[in-house]
């Protein structure tokens, strides 16, 4: 057997890898069975389960399983099976005795929206049967009629003795035997005795068929009625709604005799009638239809279960030697939280995760398990009961609370990692100042960290390009090594890692989620947690010292948060922080003659020099690009060319940059990992030149000569023509660069992004003239160029969906991409409205319809994105109505037909079979064939964890939003032709896509 003391500092590595180590689990309920299943899944520990009862049975009745429990059941592979057993109706309705609705909430829909999982009510027997079937399938033995009588714990193992004289020995003993645990009573903490709470639950299961059909049909979801003595509730608990569970919770004196451990059932007729009479007395003042329903439910009851509610005093031990308590045996909660089964599942997964850690002793694993479990329970009780847990907190000060950091007695860092997906109850945006121990505790395990890093390298790094990936990966490994050795990692390093992990989480791919055994909802929660941790480091009372690592992290956060909900103000703050830090480090003077001479005399690390160039030019390019983008910052920029002396980064792959120098600096005709970065800088410089040349347009002073516009257009067209062949989009160039793309798959994505950025600027340059150009030959070039570039933007957005399957980045999650798509669609829609009889009007309508659907799909990914678009449409319509009050929106003077087609498209996408959305359509526009994808983009595909996410009420909510969106489009397309060209241009100039919320 394994020779390891409970407090031995020896490693756990040998224990995990050996095939013949064993755990004894006392308790054959959900806690014990789920623990056995999870240990079987994730470790080499074999389990034997021992149950007191003579056969598989439960306390009866039904329980609720919260989203955190359903998430873990999904990981056990049991979620879908349970869905076919339990009831998932959405609403919770609380009524008064008079029948009025006091509160109503779509709890399942809300839970799905926030976590990806809903809420289920299921019979205890059905839950137990599903778990037992899974246990038997993997041949985990379960023994019944086993009453534990003795526990012997020594360095060779732990031996248990049962009342029938049989014994068993294993390496660890897990007490999953409920609040009246024999494991706790006999060994772990004999003085920890459950206390009667003064409350008891009366409940019963009745067939729905015994009730009139009109009554049974009303019992959907979770229904509660408040009485003077307690709460009466009723709910369906099967998938077919054929059984109804009702219960009453109130104060009941503790009986002087009887088996109070498991409660008791009332069978005799006189006892049943007495209990029913008492319940009728409580319900005598119940009014209205629901009062009648409750009385009929009680009247049809033949067996009543009475269960006394106990609680455990706080402060008891949860482990001793080789023995550990889980679930209610350790931390029984009052049932009103509805978290008993879910918290038992969380315990099972937490223990499994800790046992995977091969660097810690068994005693330390048990200690960390108790600390983390207690912390989760305190947080949960705080969320559910507000201040009801203050007594528990005050008596539990001996525990090292994770929120204050976890340190050993000698002060060294002692922490566990937080696996990806354990952030559904995420970091608070108002988190107080934190120390290294608290922050480092949220690092994912090293294996997951490597997967996240690789995903970042394949997705957002392609458009960010600042990191020197080999040295950054080495920094990550060094940081984790310092944690493994008990040293404090650098807070700056943690900042960088959390910025990378946040980027990887928001750029999740199905492949990443499969490797992490996670879901889309968990990825979103992880993004929120990682980004908030990074921001908490920056906002800490101890400022982050200027460094290259800090600048990289700040730049990455800016790149990330620009495209994510709720960070507009923080992005501006981050930009200024980055500028001030870079200036303090004199990065803007990096390549002056003096700096170069100092490097020659003193030496330098050329990786650091190259990274500083990337950092600087990334900040500069972002500043100049937004100066000619749209929005409140348009027409202004911060970085002045005359105030810097920094060379462009070398056009070379990271592998050719070493601390001693850059081995090669390839011409721009040679593709490297930096090619797209450099051309982004070149495009940004053109934007700066445009802003310097035509401030009059942006600042509404004197209009420039049209020849100036044509000259700037020529510069942009020259930039397009001079792109290297691998960044060109014509068929011949694509054919010529096929080998380069095969070697570097990221090129296809990068060339789309470069063309997307160019055509959005061409649209912006010619937009003031495009409508007038439809009738005035002088500006006809602007009209045709603006339309051509708008169509190119929409086509490039479609190409992004094609490349999504290759590089994994989902354009539907990018705010800036969808902003430009929306503007391009507006330009085309308005052009059709002004010129309904143009030769290609029908083709443009088709493009608008396709874009409408793309925006609709993207809105499903980002509610704030759709909110921002609708806000701008509403602003447009408000202004249109003010300027043309005589127009009747409901009866427009002129109809282009697009509004009707949008109504038809909406009807098809919400009413018809999914196959109606699988239409691919090609249209001829201006002589070029452009494929319009009428099916949902591959970015809209969902992992299996998303199945069943949308409840009926949630769908209704979405439909309502889409009807509003559809109505806005229809009104806009009807009214827009009434404006003249200058008014229209003025309206578009006032569009504001800045995010209003502040969720970080």
UniProtKB/TrEMBL annotation:
Organism for this UniProt entry: Cudoniella acicularis
Family of this protein: Belongs to the paxM FAD-dependent monooxygenase family.
SUPFAM superfamilies named among the record's database cross-references: FAD/NAD(P)-binding domain (SSF51905)
Keyword terms of this UniProt record: FAD, Flavoprotein, Monooxygenase, Nucleus, Oxidoreductase
Keyword Nucleus among record annotations: yes
Protein name: FAD-binding domain-containing protein
Entries under InterPro entries matching the protein: FAD-bd, FAD-dep_Monooxygenase_BioMet, FAD/NAD-bd_sf, XnlR_reg_dom
Domain Xylanolytic transcriptional activator regulatory: start-end pairs: 492-704
Any one GO MF annotation of this record: zinc ion binding
FAD-binding domain span: 21-356
Record field: transmembrane: none
A biological process term (GO) from this entry: DNA-templated transcription
The keyword DNA-binding is annotated on this UniProt entry: no
